[in-house]
Amino acid sequence: MKPDGEGSPMAKTEVRERIAEAAWRLFDEKGYENVSVDEIIAATGTSKGAFYHYFSAKDELLSALPDKFDNDYDAWAAQCPPDMPSADRIVALCRFVCKNMELKLSRQIITEIYSTQLVTRGPKFLTSESRRYVKLLNQYVHEGQERGEITGAIACTELSQMLDIQLRGLIYDWCLRDGAYSMEAMCDKLIGAFMRAMRPGE
């Protein structure tokens, strides 16, 4: 017997997303460590075979997080004004990343994600260069350097990595401080100041 949803690509995507959404909801309600695979299966009405068809273990559900936001980043990029200065576009993208996280994920879930990434022996998806927003950062930095809007003294990939590190550090600090400030507003100040320092001649 085929696992639930093992048919059309659309059906596979829907089942995988349904499992992930149910898991994140349970993690938020009960805490990551207090949720079992059996509870996730029961909440989705699928089977154990279906779960392990899409996820090798419970912690792999956390690594599926980028999939949840990739469409949002693509939609944001599509409506971004093409004549917006590259530095402003980078700040706006980072601000959107923070705003989207605050709106769609609880602080507890974000904390669980960062905690498990610190101790996992597997791939650390938080540092993956294949993440959609990281690719957008690379694109915008490259365009800014080509236009002479951003310094070329630092390689494009290195500058993009510096931005990614700052953004990840901001999210970590926000979790440590129990969400005491607006992540989006702090991002605007932090990344904005950094990009002003990245102007040619600064």
Average pLDDT reading = 87
Instruction: Based on Cα principal axes, name the global outline.
Output: elongated
> Quaternary state, please?
single chain
CATH topology name of the largest domain: Tetracycline Repressor, domain 2
Could you name the CATH class of the largest domain?
A: Mainly Alpha
Radius of gyration: 19 Å
Characterize the biggest β-sheet.
none
Cα distance, first to last residue? 64 Å
Keywords: DNA-binding
Protein name: TetR/AcrR family transcriptional regulator
GO molecular function, one term: DNA-binding transcription factor activity
Organism: Anaerotruncus massiliensis
What does it look like?
- GO terms for molecular function: DNA-binding transcription factor activity; transcription cis-regulatory region binding.
- It comes from Anaerotruncus massiliensis.
- Residues 36-55 bind DNA.
- With 202 residues, this protein is mainly alpha-helical.
- It folds into 2 domains: 9-59, Arc Repressor Mutant, subunit A; 64-197, Tetracycline Repressor, domain 2 (Orthogonal Bundle), CATH 1.10.357.
- It is 69% helix and 0% strand.
- It contains 10 helices and no strands.
- It has helices spanning 9-30, 37-44, 48-54, 60-63, 65-79, 86-104, 107-119, 132-147, 156-176, 183-197.
- Helix 7 crosses helix 9.
- The protein is elongated, with a radius of gyration of 19 Å.
Considering the chains and any ligands shown, give keywords for the structure.
mainly alpha; Arc Repressor Mutant, subunit A; Tetracycline Repressor, domain 2; 10 helices; 0% strand
